[in-house]
Amino acid sequence: MRDKTQTEPPEAEAIDSPNTREPLYAPRKKVFPKRISGNFRRFKWLVMAITLAIYYLTPWLRWDRGPFAPDQAVLIDLANRRFYFFFIEIWPQEFYYVAGLLVMAGIGLFLITSTVGRAWCGYTCPQTVWVDLFLVVERAIEGDRNARIKLDAGSWTARKLVLRVSRHAIWLAIAAATGGAWIFYFADAPSLIDELFAGTAAPVAYITIGVLTATTYTFGGLMREQVCTYMCPWPRIQAATLDENSLTVTYNDWRGEPRSRHAKKALAAGQPVGDCVDCNACVAVCPMGIDIRDGQQLECITCALCIDACDGVMNKLGKDRGLISYATLSDYNANMAAATAGGACSVNPSLVRTDGSAFSNRLAHFHVRKIFRPRTFVYMSAWSAVGLALLYSLLTRDRLEVNVLHDRNPQFVTLSDGSIRNGYTVKLLNMIPEPRTIVVTMQGLADAEMSVVGIDMPADRSLSVPVEPDRLKMLKIFVRQPAEQINAQAQTFKFRVEDKASLESDEYTATFNAPEIVR
Amino acid sequence: MSGEHIDEVSDVSTTGHEWDGIKELNNPLPRWWVITFYVTIVWAIGYTIAYPAWPMLSSATRGVLVYSSRHDVKNELEAAEVAKGKYVAALQAKTVFEIAADDVLRGFAIAAGGAAFKVNCVQCHGSGAQGSKGFPNLNDDDWLWGGKAEQIQQTITHGIRFASDSDTRLSEMPAFGDIITPEQIRQVSAYVSSLSGAVGDQALVIPGANVFAENCAACHGDKAKGNTELGAPDLTDAIWLYGARETAIAAQVRAPKQGVMPAWGGRLGEVTVKELAVYVHSLGGGE
Ligand code: SF4
Ligand code: SF4
After folding, report:
1. Could B128 and A26 be called an inter-chain contact, meaning their C-beta atoms sit closer than 8 Å?
2. Nearest Cα residue in chain B from A222
3. Has residue B74 been placed in a domain?
4. Of A54, A120, A221, A476, which is most buried with the most CB atoms under 10 A?
């Protein structure tokens, strides 16, 4: 309750007054990032061009694998359960290569984050890249920050309507192209695109495009920074892999404070003045809408655009660049201690400068050496160990395999002449895109003979079967051993498969079962 | 509670909940989050209206979409029937011999026959078709009524000693307990047992040969090799439906057990019987 007897209107209001209390459910505060140019921005344009090019163009690359396999360089063939990556072809049972790559990606993220901070977020994350792309559209149509703020605040005029509709239309078109590009990874791209426009592609293709269009449009256009702040798990995980020696985008208050918009006046009054002129340029460019001068924050994706903004200002003022810079926490703390005389006073820029301008040479700077510390060595060696193991297994893997399933029910059959028969399901895996003739031979098991349902066997203990390119051939093989040769309830023998042309081979040790008492 | 408490460090009001001196901050949720939350509730309610959900006294609401998983199954089964159509038609038109010679049809028939076998045949012949005492093992190469695909088809269609099928396979081994003396039964059993390698009492085996020639050879053959026309088993091999011991043989001579197999032709239809015949033939013993 306000005191009605009070004559002056109150200047201060209680923080829990209904007027200032934060609503329980906060609407999003709109962010209007300003255009900026500079080294990091240039680098980000480059990364954006490369990542988008990889995404959109990869399915169109061709790779000749001969007449029996698709010629798409990168193809996830779900129907036939094959994954093609240039010269590598992966069968479902070799999925551990993909798992290994994911492990490497995880450790790689730790490695990168512990050295150069959230570089993934700032430069290469699809969310960042697509938001950047959407912002390009937004700026092209509605103008830069101030124009957009004005437009947004203004009432709905025909012009605003046209601008808004065209912005969202282009966003949707980009989103559709994004979803559209995704499906080309799963089918032959040139033929799929024809089917797509003819309306004859599989329904799942259209559904996928629809879903990805919706997510791209929502995440890249509508939700933007909220995806990073509220939805994405990486910021939480990355926070744990950062330490005091990781580079992060830092506002160097030890030279910026006390900030002042009226530096000359303050100087004249004999007050200490820092380099920050409080122009808010860093805030205006931030795609996350935060103020880096408040310190390291979970919202910051370290896109480094505020560095570009601040460097531009410093250039204009003829001051040293790097008021906002990539710095490690330990350097920052050391410099902060210097600037505050070990915490004895508030920041005094003169403490870090020898005379009026040059920085004292006691200041801490980042050194490449800091990248090499136990933590990064551990990440590095784990990463390379997984990588080398994958590489080794890839280079030495078999492209011809035999798998054998022993019949369990019944385990053996007594035949009329007293001999014992066991059944085996033998699977021949021809993992190259060429037809092959595979010779299956039995080794061991005295006097035993093989027979195959549906095949006339010229020889008793071996047969040769054609196997289609890139396919599995299943044979039902019966093995029969005369009663007098059976010397144990379980004997072992080998199925050996060989490609006589390439001399590739594989073996499987199988068991032959017999009843306990053989007459 | 007297007014709100504001956390000193973060300047954010707290909920007033406190555990061991730790207070819960009352940070506002993003509005879109809250809206999403309400949308899920609306969705859930709509879902229970669209689909069967609310329990009633004897059943549940059917939902405005009248969805039923039973319907789905029925449709899927119908679709599967249609998809099988062209194979079934081919099976109908061809003989089992032709089916077995065709790679694609044989594969289809073995898969379908295997499924039909699991439903109709495993009760007697076992899940691996391995049989048991009195129920023949279908994996081996000993066939009472012949192991050619057509013979198997015939057996399945009309059954064995199945009274209500006039074409059923019929063989009645007499109960020799009423015909020959117990001594002769012992002799002939010893003789039969010796045919498949057992070393028996020669004093019984030698007269047993005579008993066999007079009483048994008519059906089982001079060499006791059996006769699939008559369903008479080969007595010289290693496979015994009712046991290989001399006593088991004697019991079978005295008062034979006569297994019955139903006629499946009427019940399963021609195509399924063909599938079963091809399947059984493929188990390894088919001739
Ligand atoms: S926070 Fe998540 S979504 Fe945002 S840039 Fe980083 S990884 Fe991408
Ligand atoms: S604070 Fe700077 S680095 Fe962080 S997100 Fe904003 S602009 Fe990018």
Report:
1. no
2. B32
3. no
4. A221
Task: Supply the range of the domain harboring residue A251.
Answer: 243-366
Question: Can you say which residues of B are annotated as belonging to the binding site for heme c?
Answer: 121, 124-125, 173, 216, 219-220, 261
Residues A50 and A140 both lie in one domain: yes
| Structural domain that includes position B188 | 176-254
The candidate with the shortest Cα–Cα distance to A223, out of A288, A178, A279, A269, is: A288
| Residue A50 maps to a domain | yes
- Could you write out the DSSP letters of every residue in B63-81? TTTT--HHHHHHHHHHHHH
Given a contact cutoff of 8 angstroms between Cβ atoms, the answer to whether A420 and A518 are in contact is yes
Q: Chain A interface, mutation test: which of B31, B278, B280, most A Cβ atoms within 10 Å?
A: B31
| Closest chain B residue by Cα to residue A22 | B28
Answer yes or no: do B112 and B160 share one domain. yes
DSSP annotation of B15 reads E
B284 closest CB neighbour out of A26, A413, A519: A413
Q: How many domains does chain A have?
A: 3
**B152 and B36, same structural domain?**
no
Same domain as A311, residue A223: no
CATH number of the domain that B243 lies in? 1.10.760.10
Q: Do B270 and B238 lie in a common domain? A: no
Q: How would you write A320-370 as a 3-class SS string?
A: CCCCEEEEEHHHHHHHHHHHCCCCCCCCCHHHHECCCCCECCCCCCCCHHH
Residue B239 and residue A416: Cβ atoms within 8 Å? yes
Task: Compute the nearest-CA separation of A31 from chain B (Å).
Answer: 15
Q: In this structure, are A259 and A353 located in the same domain?
A: yes
B173 neighbors B260 (Cβ within 8 angstroms): no
Q: Is residue B25 part of a domain?
A: yes
Q: Which of A32, A251, A291, A306 to mutate to test ligand 2, by most ligand atoms within 8 A of the CB atom?
A: A306
Q: Which of A125, A300, A325 to mutate to test the pocket of ligand 2 (most atoms within 8 A of CB)?
A: A300
Chain B interface disruption, residue of A15, A416, A419, A451, most B CBs within 10 A: A416
B240 and B224 Cβ atoms separated by less than 8 Å: no
Instruction: Give the number of domains in chain B.
Output: 3
Q: Do B3 and A410 touch (CB under 8 A)?
A: no
One domain for residues B149 and B191: no
| Residue B43 belongs to a domain | yes
**Pairwise CA distance, residues B31 & A432, whole Å:** 55
Residue A226 CB less than 6 A away from ligand 1: no
Task: Identify which of B157, B186, B171, B148 has the alpha carbon closest to the alpha carbon of residue B233.
Answer: B171
The pLDDT profile of chain B, 287 residues, written as one tens digit per residue, is: 446 678 877 778 888 888 888 888 888 888 888 899 999 999 999 999 999 999 999 888 888 988 889 999 999 999 999 999 999 999 999 999 999 888 899 999 999 999 999 999 999 999 999 999 999 999 999 999 999 999 999 999 999 999 999 999 998 899 999 999 999 999 999 999 999 888 888 899 999 999 999 999 999 999 999 999 999 999 999 899 999 889 999 999 999 999 999 999 999 999 999 999 999 999 988 88
Helix (H) or strand (E) holding A436: strand A436-443
Whether the model pTM is above 0.90: no
Residue A119 to chain B, least CA–CA distance (Å): 26
Both B150 and B8 in one domain: the answer is no
In a domain, A107, yes or no: no
Residue A282's contacts (CB-CB under 8 Å, 6 or more residues apart) are A251, A291, A292, A293, A306, A309, A310, A324
Residues from chain B that touch A16, judged by Cβ atoms under 8 A, are 3-4, 6, 13
Same domain, A146 and A192: yes
Distance in Å, alpha carbon of B87 to nearest chain A alpha carbon: 19
Ligand 1 mean position to A218 CA, how many Å? Answer: 15
> Roughly how many angstroms between the first and final C-alpha of chain A, as a whole number?
107
Same domain for A304 and A404, yes or no, is no
- Kindly state whether residue A372 falls inside one of the protein's structural domains: no
